[in-house]
Design brief:
Elements (H helix, E strand, L loop, with lengths): L6 E5 L3 H12 L3 E6 L7 H6 L6 H4 L1 H12 L14 E5 H4 L8 E4 L5 H14 L5 E4 L15 H5 L1 E6 L8 E6 L5 H13 L4 E4 L8 H19 L3 H7 L12 H7 L1 H14 L13 H8 L12 E5 L5 E7 L4 E4 L6 H5 L6 H9 L4 H19 L8 H12 L5 H8 L1 H11 L5 H8 L6 E4 L2 E6 L4 E4 L9 H8 E4 L3 E7 L2 E6 L8 H17 L2 E4 L12 H9 L3 H20 L4 E3 L3 E4 L1 H8 L2 E2 L5 E4 L13 H12 L2
Parallel strand pairs: 1-2, 1-4, 2-3, 4-5, 5-6, 7-8, 17-18, 18-19, 19-21, 20-22
Antiparallel strand pairs: 6-7, 9-10, 10-11, 12-13, 13-14, 15-16, 16-17
Length: 640
Amino acid sequence: MNKHINKVAVLGSGIMGSRIACHFANIGVEVLLLDIAPKELSEEEKAKGLTLDNKAVKNRVVNSSLQTALKSNPSPIYNKAFASRIKTGNFDDNMKDIANVDWIIEVVVENLNIKKSVFEQVEKYRKPGTFITSNTSGIPIHLMLEGRSDDFQKYFCGTHFFNPPRYLKLLEIIPSPKTDKDVLDFLMHYGDLYLGKTTVLCKDTPAFIANRIGVYSIMALFHLMEKMDLTVDEVDKLTGPVLGRPKSATFRTCDVVGLDTLVHVAKGVYDNCPNDEAREQFNLPGYVQKMYESKWWGDKTKQGFFKKIKGADGKSEILTLDLKTLEYKPKSKVKFDTLEATKTIDNLKERMKVLSAGKDKAGEFYRTAFYGLFQYISNRIPEIADEVYRIDAAMSAGFGWELPPFETWDALGVADTIKAMETAGNKPAQWVYDMINSGATSFYKVENGVKKYYDIATKSYKAIPGTDSFIILDNLKSTKTIWENKGASVIDIGDGIINLEFHSKMNTIGEEVLQGINKAIEIAEKDYRGLVIGNDAANFSAGANLALVLMLAIEQEFDEISMAVKAFQNINMRIRYSSIPVVVAPHGLTLGGGCEMCLHADCVQAAAETYIGLVEFGVGLIPGGGGTKEFTIRSCINHP
């Protein structure tokens, strides 16, 4: 399909609509953001003598929403200047302007009748061939087609962005029975390539994929913690980074998203999925029902499972809700022997084995949670998806699970886990037994650098669609690593190019990493066409190992500090003057030495979410790896 997206109309400027508009502006697209015109004047407008026909009044809702979004933290827009790409208006005066856009995204309130009325207006002005999508989080897509033209139905589907759209990578694409396949292919590709999303094709089922599985997981934990007499602080400690999940874990995530949103999705699944074997898990526990009725919804109402207060000393303090008394208490220290046993285990897959084998309360918690989750995801195929990788991709991108459910099951061993699940009363779906009986032992495997998934229909392994367009270092390590030490690896990524990957803690730059850079350039200059310095970790590099520098300073080993600084300077100069091109691909935290490396590269291919800078000043140091020199040169060039 030969289409270009130059202009987008976003209908509805609430929390999601305004932020979706900002993200399109981020990538250079012109945006028309529309919302309703007010029916009444505000007191301020009355005092000014304005009328309902005044343009500022008619655009009050949309302009207020956009300004609120632009002032929010974290910011939905890369640069405040990009907001000039967003033009605002109202449904009464500006709906006609959608005739000039390439994609119309409806983001009004979650009410089917209201959405239908908006689509009636869209039909009057939309030109044929224009994409039209709904950002619904749960209303069945096919119900929105009633009364719509053939062309509308052909170009219509659901596009469920996760909030906040700039930061959460998931974009669920939900077709109706009438959606043209070329439209789906285009949107899947566009969301991936231009919007920077993990696009997942979903079936038109309640809560789609990510919310169906994610909210099940949260609701199951709500019930489990009651059964096991666990506290909010304990559950968040058990379900956060130790599992490869966000620091917000379970309850902090609920506060950020909003308990009202969680309840809405849970109730939707309970009401609309009568045949779901775990339907009762979506029933609200008593404490959740009381919190919902009291409007303790989290950040949006200033209290939820946590509450921020001012202490007697004037400092802010975070209190935790006691679910038995519904009173707030100081956060408690959490300690489990199982968690202590994992402190030295960096490999997440190995950590999962230790967690699930724990002999204490934490181990019991993990086994119960894992077995219930594995049973649930196996039973959702083919209901919500036909392939395992779609469920895993949705959970990774939408909920931030570093190791999604089927990959977690693989890490624990599929066959052994099935036996344990049977004993616990969580027997998985029949297709899992069929997989094991066919001779397959895992849901995924890597062959010749290609990650493949077990395809249920053919009982064979197939490459995950779309991954052939990307270089995934983890898939190449076993067969394409040509040199490595404790802190870095050199991997042949094809086409005569090698990649240097760091794997020190936080990718800090120490002796092993410097050795790796030197070796990578040496190898590239001899046998290859170029070098990329990049990795698949959460952050590119937190910079030099300042703890080591501090220790040497305390011991007054100034000669060693001088030698280390000189070594890094020499490495960066070698990057600058190497006979082969060196490309640095930063992302996430790119601090201090990581920034200095970028300053010396032939080319920098930075991710949109790159937080880069010479931060040594914050601890009283001057950048010593060449960054100060590069900063000075750039200042002189820009300001002669």
